[in-house]
Specification:
Number of helices: 21
Number of strands: 0
Strand content: under 5%
Radius of gyration: 31 Å
Helix content: over 70%
Distance between the termini: 120 Å
């Protein structure tokens, strides 16, 4: 009896293998069919097939179903359900799911934020040679995003990914070498890594390489090469590159001066909220460069940039309020804007802020405060004009010595 029982069990086990193999084959077919439906944007139909395959225990289906929940494709967006399916798939060692689950823990999406768990999962993926995980782990260490900043560990993992020519990792390594983070500063190495990423079409790398060529850091200075890389990046919609390209057309650097194209790229960048493009457009409307002079438009763009904390825009907007250009004269508003820019260390704003205290414009007259901010402005490199020098002589005394060695006459009340 025992012998027959063992034989029967053995037969059951043996006959189970064809069933399991068939299920695996069926699940794989469902996943493939679902992928075709996703590409055809028939998301609801794809989700039905993924659910069926996921219930069979297919790790890829579970991960892909998690993506559908995460992105709200073919089903109502549900980050908790996404994390659930990532967990099911990751428990089978499916690397893309481990990566997705790591992201969930890193940012607390669908699960309670758990940086240690995220780090553990990313290291598991990295140990299996996954370049995307190596890059994410490296960049997280580099910027302290979710994990404690560690430049040396960042470089270690970024190099592993860069060895596989993973473009984002090459870019981040370029940043490390440009800034001396975790490595000795080396602009030539930075340029090499940026180029590896730029050649793969990474817009931010193209922009950064353009910067190196513009200023001759690690490469032979070339406005033409800078223009080339800015163009590549700008055509992909990278806002900082669009601003730089607009500036090159404005100044005729590496290309012929062309105000029409200047405005095109400044506007493209400004539409994305790029702060320097907004400021530059304000300057265009102030000077009438490529457009009809329009102080109202100037104010509009300066306000957009100032609201983002741009010190140059805050100062220029403050000056407009100070003299009543494009707006009603308002010393109080001017004082507030000068203060915002001065506290960011903008030299012209520091001096203007000191002037407000000197003249009692927008604030009570206070020569001690005036002297404090005048000195800060001078220490920051501000070069006073003749009128400024008279103010300095009044505040610091008759013996105040100018930069050119001459003494200023005390300003009269």
């Amino acid at each position: 009896m025992k012998k027959n029982f063992i034989l029967a069990v053995l037969c059951l086990v043996l006959t189970a293998w064809p069933v399991m193999a068939a299920e695996t084959e069926t699940a794989s077919s469902l996943v493939k069919e679902a992928q075709d439906l996703m590409e055809a944007e028939e998301y609801e139909a794809a989700v039905l097939l993924l659910k069926e395959a996921a219930e069979m225990g297919d790790a890829q289906a579970q991960n892909n179903l998690g993506n559908c929940y995460f992105n709200g494709q073919g089903i109502e967006k549900d980050e908790k359900q996404a994390a659930k399916y990532y967990q099911l798939s990751a428990s089978q060692g499916y690397i893309p799911a481990e990566y997705n689950l790591a992201l969930s823990y890193l940012h607390g999406v669908g699960v309670k934020q758990d940086p240690a768990k995220a780090e553990e999962l990313l290291k598991a993926c990295s140990d299996q040679g996954d370049a995307e995980a190596q890059c994410l782990l490296g960049s997280s260490y580099l910027y302290g995003e979710g994990l404690e900043r560690d430049d040396e560990e960042a470089v270690k993992y970024l190099k592993l990914a860069a060895e596989q020519r993973y473009a984002p990792a090459c870019f981040y390594l370029g940043v490390c070498f440009e800034n001396g983070w975790g490595v000795e500063q080396d602009y030539a190495e930075a340029a090499d890594y940026y180029k590896q990423a730029a050649d793969q079409g990474l817009d931010c790398a193209q922009y950064n390489l353009g910067l190196l060529y513009q200023y001759g850091n690690g490469v032979e200075q070339s406005y033409e090469k800078a223009f080339e890389y800015y163009s590549l990046s700008a055509e992909q919609g990278f806002p900082e590159a669009q601003t730089a390209l607009g500036f090159f057309y404005d100044q005729g650097l590496g290309t012929e001066q062309d105000y029409e194209k200047m405005l095109k790229y400044y506007n493209l960048a400004a539409e994305q909220g790029e702060v320097m493009a907004e400021f530059n457009l304000g300057c265009c409307y102030h000077d009438g460069t490529g457009v009809k002079q329009d102080y109202k438009e100037m104010i509009r763009y300066f306000e957009l940039a100032a609201d983002q904390g741009n010190a140059n825009a805050q100062f220029n907007l403050g000056f407009s309020y100070y003299i009543g250009e494009g707006v009603d004269q308002d010393y109080d508003k001017a004082f507030q804007l000068f203060q915002l820019a001065a506290e960011q260390g903008f030299p012209s704003a520091m001096f203007a802020y000191g002037d407000c205290y000197y003249l009692g414009k927008g604030v009570g007259k206070d020569l001690e405060k005036s002297a404090e901010w005048y000195q800060k402005a001078l220490d920051a490199g501000y070069e006073p004009d003749e009128e400024d020098q008279k103010h300095l002589a009044e505040v610091f005394g008759e013996d105040y010595t100018l930069i050119d060695g001459k003494k200023a006459d005390a300003a009269s009340e």
